[in-house]
Amino acid sequence: MTKKLHQIKHYMLNMEQKINISKKYIIKIVMLFLNIMCLIVGIWGIHGLWIDGKVVRRDEGFIFFSLQHESSPFSVDIQNFRQLQKELLDTEWYEYYEIYGQPLFLEENIFQDKENDWKTDDGKHIINAVQIGQNVCDDFGIEIYKGREFIKSDFLYKSKEKLPILIGYEWVNKLSIGDIVCVEYLYDTYECVVIGVLAPESMIYMTNKTYLLDNCIVMPSFEVLQGSNITDGLKIHYANKVSGIIKAEKGKERQAIKYLNSCIKNTSTGEYSWYSTLMDINLRHTFHVGIYEILVMDIVVCFLMNAFIRRKVRRNK
Asked: Which of these, 227, 214, 219, 232, lies nearest to 191 by C-alpha position?
């Protein structure tokens, strides 16, 4: 009996040692896995900051934000859009640009270019177009090859008047200065007159969005007169006018974001979303924590985790 008890005790001791060894291996594996995870987070954060720095340098010390109206505009009074537009423009913290890509539709393909001929289901031809505000041509260095650029009066549209447009360089042999083009823009029909041809390889370049203009029509992001007949198309047009681009100087981005959030929070025109060219800002906007905070938390978690596990290992020895 004594011998049997001794064997059982010896067996239990061996089992306990094996369990302790297994626990140590498991702890080491878990520790290695968690350290690898912390390392991955750290590398990701450092890489994100490096990318953000590269973007700011490429954009010459500026940060771009894209603003987008997310609600139906049809129940909104157009005066409310105008009020928000005024607030977006009237600040020292950033420059606001009305830039929006909205295609045009034609009954006939006046360009006779089958390679670039896109049609809707009802047979209308789709033409690339960009609508821009008054400050875009100068600030983005858009040059004119022939004709003239937009002037202030071009941005006020009066019913039944012709809407001035600029055409991309690829169309220089298909349209001429003074030609009239009838287009459908946001469900409404407009007569457009060509006032200028853009220089070759013209573009509106931003890190978060680039518009190539060689095969494009550029329209003024126009205003309509008080008392004009407001169609659904014009309501979409005004929603697009407040879905533009913001350019903030690095170092002023916090004030710019605070002012922008105040504008879209207090407007009665609906819901808005925005994102920037920097990962750190987008993370902070979505999750209320940026890359710097994530890196600090990663270091603290890694330190505490290793200290706790080492302490536990020492106790088990």
From this structure: 219
**Straight-line distance from the first to the last Cα atom of the chain, in angstroms, rounded to the nearest whole number:** 32
This prediction's pTM? 0.82
Strand partners, 126: 105, 118
C-beta separation of 199 from 56 below 8 A: no
Backbone angles phi, psi at 71, to 5 degrees: -105, 170
Q: What count of Cα atoms within 13 Å lies in the side-chain half-sphere of residue 109?
A: 14
Q: Show Cβ contacts of residue 72 under 8 Å, excluding neighbours closer than 6 positions.
A: 270
Over residues 151-162, the pLDDT tens digits come to 999 999 987 789
Q: What is the pLDDT of residues 121-138, one digit of tens each?
A: 666 788 899 999 999 999
Give me 11's structure tokens.
């067996």
With contact defined as beta carbons under 8 Å apart, do 164 and 155 qualify? Answer: no
- Residue from 179, 159, 164, 144 nearest 221 by CA: 164
Residue 244 — φ and ψ, nearest 5°? Answer: -105, -155
Contact of 65 with 260, CB cutoff 8 Å: yes
